[in-house]
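I have been asked to look over a protein record a colleague put together. Alongside the sequence sits a line of tokens, each denoting a local backbone shape. I have pasted the whole thing underneath without changing anything:
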Amino acid sequence: MPALHLKIDLHTHSTYSDGLGRPEDILEGAREKGLDGLAITDHHTLDGYFSVRDMEGDLLIIPGFEVETEAGHILVLGLEELPSGIEGISYEELIGWVRERSGLTVIAHPAISRFHMAEWNRSKPDAVEVLNAMYPLQFFVQRGLRLSQRMGLPALGGSDAHNHFTVGDAYSVVDVEKANVEGVLMAIKGGLVSYYGNLSPVRSRLKIGVDYLKSVLF
């Protein structure tokens, strides 16, 4: 039986993509919120992760990156390499590539845009980000939960933090046997995970939400 309950923010961004905080600032924000670990999931790059991977400390740092596909944004966790042609990779290609390497795929903030049920059901990811702290309204959390239940996939939480102040506003609690990356991935795939936290303060999430809505609607 799992003996450890790890609080992990599985969705953060640093200055290596569109975040405002350096990776080391993101780590400090995680410590301030009492997290056990986090994933730096910059867009189409692992540079943020690699910049802090070998730092000594008390946090479990999970490799990750976020990919934009025609079927929405996908978080990839657990891999220290990027797929070739990442800028134009299709959703199904990405899911297959990650599965071959035993990584983890998560539909990121799906409730903010239209669902892509045909693609998602044809090549199922491993989990759904139900609680994204940057959502403009609580309504979207319930919409994401319904999607998770409909697909029969584990429900995760992530802050989508773009600065160190909002790291850990939303997070996942993962019940693991071993406190390492492999243990976390295995537990999530097995459904031993729950989401917690709240939406970030309005000031923090307003610009992020507006910019994202513009990108998907116009």
Q: What stands out?
A: The chain has a mean pLDDT of 94. The helical segments are 23-32, 47-52, 91-100, 117-122, 139-151, 181-189, 202-217.
